[in-house]
């Protein structure tokens, strides 16, 4: 093959490659992106930027925060001592709640009673000396972090079950102090009196 013919063949090859590159340079879809179990989207080549792009959506990431609810009572045995007819005897304990829920704590109420059936009745009124009665009062309302607890009233009202602590958002160590108060009068029968309280904590998640 002479030199002129070799140049013609070489020139033809270059022209063919240029034509091939020009064919791929056109803007258009060159592929497909897909989400397994989801949708698809075209991958488009742009002949100006010389880049191909495709967008897939949505990619959803989810997580769960487990519910938590804890209650701690500082003492399970309290002693009011010997009741006086002239003063109000008081003993107290703390009730603490930690939760990532809205919640409340309730206590059943009742009076101090003897095994023989004598009763120092429960009252929602403020106790004074010379007037027989028993009640629970709630004070405090502090927390380490999160929502501050609230208490409905300073003296627990007379009811079968009463709310002593409420929070409406997550809280850590929301605490109230519960005081048991009792007084006797001159006609209160002698004897050993007691009452068992049950505290219930509830959460809404």
Report what the structure shows:
This protein has 205 residues and is mainly beta. The chain has a domain at 69-204: Immunoglobulin-like (Sandwich). Helix content is 11%, strand content 40%. The chain has 1 helix and 13 strands, in the order H-E-E-E-E-E-E-E-E-E-E-E-E-E. The strands form 4 sheets. Strands 4, 5, 9, 10 and 12 form a 5-stranded antiparallel beta sheet that branches. A 3-stranded antiparallel beta sheet has the order 1-2-3, with no helix packed on it. The chain starts with a helix and ends with a strand.
What's the overall average pLDDT, rounded?
84
Number of helices: 1
**CATH-derived topology of one domain:** Immunoglobulin-like
What gyration radius follows from the Cα positions, in whole Å? Answer: 40 Å
Task: Give the beta-strand count.
Answer: 13
Given as residue ranges, the uncertain stretches (5+ residues, pLDDT < 50) are 8-20
Structural class: mainly beta
Listing every helix as H and every strand as E from the N terminus to the C terminus, the arrangement reads: HEEEEEEEEEEEEE
CATH architecture of one domain: Sandwich
Strand percent estimate: 35-45%
Summarize the biggest pleated sheet. Answer: 5 strands, antiparallel
Helix content: 10-25%
What is the top-level CATH class of one domain?
A: Mainly Beta
């Amino acid at each position: 093959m002479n030199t002129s013919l070799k140049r013609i063949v070489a020139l033809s090859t270059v022209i063919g490659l240029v034509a091939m590159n020009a064919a791929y340079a056109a803007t258009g879809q060159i592929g497909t992106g897909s989400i397994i179990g989801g949708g698809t989207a075209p991958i488009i080549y742009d002949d100006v930027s010389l880049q191909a792009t495709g967008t897939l959506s949505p990619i959803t990431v989810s997580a769960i925060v487990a519910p938590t609810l804890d209650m701690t009572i500082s003492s399970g045995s309290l002693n009011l001592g010997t009741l006086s007819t002239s003063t109000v005897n008081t003993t107290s304990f703390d009730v603490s709640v930690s939760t990532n829920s809205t919640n409340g704590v309730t206590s059943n109420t009742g009076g101090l009673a003897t095994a023989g059936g004598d009763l120092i009745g429960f009252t929602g009124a403020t106790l004074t000396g010379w007037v027989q009665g028993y009640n629970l009062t709630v004070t405090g309302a502090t927390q380490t972090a999160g929502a501050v607890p609230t208490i409905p009233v300073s003296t627990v009202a007379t009811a079968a079950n009463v709310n002593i602590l409420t929070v409406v958002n997550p809280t850590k160590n929301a605490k109230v102090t519960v005081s048991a108060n009792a007084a006797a009068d001159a006609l209160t029968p002698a004897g050993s009196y007691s009452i068992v309280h049950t505290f219930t904590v509830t959460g809404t998640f």
